[in-house]
């Protein structure tokens, strides 16, 4: 059992393959956190806790006269509370019926269960059978009657611990939750760097590392979605940690709405991390008997550097978060018409693109924005999910059948959570749009938000989208969301509950997605939000792949995909080859480079293939064949970042088969140098004892050039020298195959 409870010491120790985590009920009944890090035994580690009389750090009343060395302001806690003597950032803040803002929790019991707890209505990591155990520790606030159940899911082999919190009002009066974090983690010692991933539209998930110093550092979103601007994922690591060495903790939030991740280094140089729903747009009235369930947070620890953290997350997201038929099925190579045509298309134009694409081996044609309502630009039509047969020149069914008749699958784009003022839906239901009475709402891309916190809006969308999906042979849906939410207000909620709107919106989104998944289990859903504005573990529970960025420039993608790869697997990252000059940057890169970069994702094309020359089409055919041939290695292999796009001249990454039989190394020169310094990388994940045959994959007739045979150990210890660049933005793929 991965969970050990010792009655005499009242310790709970959670063990994964390479980590241990411990908490302890102390003599005062407080649940203290004693350890998280490299694997230890179940020894009581509370001897590490320093007690001292710290001025201005008060003592619980029952101890104040006898023990001034006991203060919640300095003790490491499992779930901290605001208002009762802990002045650090806290996990729980409530407003009681008398208006006071105070909570104080003491231990009341525990339960250990086989299997993993679930969270109704919320995405959560799941157990495929025998992979996880659950610990539930119950705390109570005797003054207001709140019961707080801390849930821990321990995935021993995967080195993952999940956390969520259930808050039940066992009292008689309403309690308003003002902050209810999913995770609180205290370290008594250590210096940390915080690595987070900031961005903007078309430039998501830029790597940023900063030293935690005294005070509070935070990242978060109040945009209604997890956002382009900060990803709900972060790493805390000891200074000096790199890809292959150093102690690192990774934290991901399984939630697609507003979040806050705060870290605070306190007066005693202790560090606290709190992660949960952003409290700025949150308050939740909990009436007697009601339960509030927080979203889930996922943690991992690795003493093998950032790479270890990343691979733990890749595995858990692929095996225990993504679901359904498409979880393990090979995803189709697709072509999307967005950058090929934008809004300017009809059915014949789309069919012509599909025809050429089918001949080259593309398996799925995706019709993007512009097929419905009055939608020839982005000023109108959102909400009117009825095919525009005049524009298409046929019904959706006829178009779908034309595409499937080519031997391809057919996919369509939706943006269900938005509404244009110039739409029949808005004219019929202006109250369904998110806006505050008496204040003109902020427009973004000239559109408004549909109030997904309302059950009637959710029901309408389920019905309308289902009707479209049932009317034609649709096997893929791109689910987009193209603005941030402002003016948060729901006409269906009373004044005192407007603080619930942002979270109810996300719950509504999850409900709609879940019911469509249940009705259409064969459809592959791809998430999107102006590219990667909602790229999070919550969405991956519904959509196993997400469009990574509206930036399709191969060189900019190196950075975007690099940052994304810290948490998210290749199988989740939508990546397409687009036309040059690139539409976002004007940069020209070769077709080979664009394909090499897109192959570090789900792989597809997004251009008007009818405009390609015969030679380019031959190359596309070969790229698709190569991707299909290497699919298992690319999508299911272990992923290693060998050289960063933020340094040097060349970005290098590697996928290694789990059974170590092969590896693919991809190198892209992002900045070519005169008199170039050689680029060396050390491969990882190979079999030390075996020999590997190395080949340079090329677009020549032969398709590959032999580079020699080298042992796995030599490739991992000595490494490999990447061939010199043949020009700027030059890409190469090297395949290493084990000789058995
Ligand atoms: C967003 C998406 C694009 C495309 C457009 C359509 O920006 O990220 O891929 O679908 O919307 O309007």
Outline the structure in words.
This protein is of the alpha+beta class and 740 residues long. The protein folds into 3 domains: 3-320, Beta-galactosidase, Chain A, domain 5, CATH 2.70.98.60; 334-637, Alpha-Beta Barrel (TIM Barrel); 639-739, Golgi alpha-mannosidase II (Immunoglobulin-like, Sandwich), CATH 2.60.40. Helices cover 19% and strands 31% of the residues. The protein is built from 15 helices and 39 strands. The strands form 7 sheets. Strands 6, 7, 8, 9, 11, 12, 14, 15, 19 and 20 form a 10-stranded antiparallel beta sheet that branches. It has a 9-stranded parallel beta sheet with strand order 29-28-27-26-23-22-21-31-30. Strands 5, 10, 13, 16, 17 and 18 form a 6-stranded antiparallel beta sheet that branches. The longest helix has 19 residues, at 501-519. The mean pLDDT is 98. It binds alpha-D-galactopyranose (GLA). Alpha-D-galactopyranose (GLA) binds next to loops.
What's the quick description here?
With 740 residues, the chain is an alpha+beta fold.
Characteristics of this structure?
740 residues, Beta-galactosidase, Chain A, domain 5, TIM Barrel, Immunoglobulin-like, nine-stranded parallel β-sheet, 15 helices, 31% strand, binds alpha-D-galactopyranose
Please, how many domains?
A: 3
Bound molecules: alpha-D-galactopyranose
- First-last Cα distance: 38 Å
For the report, how would you describe the main beta sheet?
10 strands, antiparallel
Question: How confident is the prediction overall: mean pLDDT?
Answer: 98
CATH class of the largest domain: Mainly Beta
Fraction in beta strands: 25-35%
Query: Ranges with pLDDT <50 over ≥5 residues?
Result: none
**CATH architecture type of the largest domain:** Distorted Sandwich
Helix content: 10-25%
Which shape, going by the Cα principal axes? globular
Named CATH topology of the largest domain: Beta-galactosidase, Chain A, domain 5
Radius of gyration, taken over Cα atoms and rounded to an integer in Å: 27 Å
According to CATH, the homologous superfamily of the largest domain is alpha-galactosidase from lactobacil brevis
